[in-house]
Fold this protein.
Amino acid sequence: MKKICNFCGNKNIHKKTTDYFYQYNEEIMLFKNVPCEECEYCGEKYFEAAVLKKIEKEFSDIVIESKKKPKKRIKISVEEYIA
């Protein structure tokens, strides 16, 4: 059965990897090379539940419970958008 994009209706969905930002409260973690399926037309990404559960577990182990350390830390600047 061919998958259809829920966003645009395109029938061309391909497996690939992508970067995924996970945010909880004021904490943000970047996960690299996360497996997903992506619509070739609009770019909408779909993730399996098991992948997202693993991301949540890794985030918890690193940020909340301090059971392990991330591979790398980076600084990020924050600014408010004012119209």
